[in-house]
Amino acid sequence: MTCHLYAVSFDAGEPLALARFWSGVLGWDLVDDPRDGVAVLPRDDTGFRLRFLPSQEQKLGQNQIHFDLTSTSLEEQQATVARALELGGRHIDIGQGPDDGQVVLADPEGNEFCVIEPGNNFLADCGFIGAVNCDGSQQVGYFWSEALGWPLVWDQDEETAIQSPRGGSKMAWGGPPYLPRLGRNRLHLDIAPPADGDQQAEVERLLALGATRLDIGQGDVSWVVLADPDGNEFCVLTPRATLPLR
């Protein structure tokens, strides 16, 4: 069996404060994480958690990963924006036009996210986190489709997207032009084998798909750090390091 997406993890100067922000915006539950950090767990059918890990590294440039939050009405979009601002978010300009229906915000540590206008057909079958939107190539979309066992739901003009067979959030890659890489990503994916799976066997499978081993100074830890074909860091956890969402 393939790995599952366990978490999207944030490097954070103040993990608890950032977790409280995202818990408030999403309406998810704040919990202690089984490893270093704190997490928020979904109350809907989103199949992954958010983790917040302590880091003293400064944010450099625009993140390679951001969330697209969905809206069922203009009033809901406005309410999401107002809630985010009240919790410490802010409006930012990343080059969006005045006629764009989405609202671009940053959380208290500067991590970008978008609140999408109602009527977006691409995200119509998704949850509140409609998409984990990534800067990346068509090749890396193919890699993650095989890595997670999520089928491609979009593959046009070097843009790709995948979605779990169970539904929920999509993962999407926008193709060229690409953002400049300025150090380690502040958001990364944590994946894990099933409870009866083998971490090392899964690492070997991912290497065969095009991943590479990576040393980010992690030392002697239970998880394995790899990079996808675009060079984005991700972690392969041990089955025992993960806890179910419910």
Automatic annotation (TrEMBL):
This is VOC family protein. PANTHER family: CONSERVED PROTEIN, HYPOTHETICAL FUSION PROTEIN. It comes from Luedemannella flava. InterPro entries: Glyas_Bleomycin-R_OHBP_Dase (IPR029068), Glyoxalase_6 (IPR041581), VOC_core (IPR037523). SUPFAM superfamilies: Glyoxalase/Bleomycin resistance protein/Dihydroxybiphenyl dioxygenase. Gene3D superfamilies: 2,3-Dihydroxybiphenyl 1,2-Dioxygenase, domain 1 (3.10.180.10). Pfam families: Glyoxalase_6 (PF18029). Residues 4-118, 125-239 form the VOC domain.
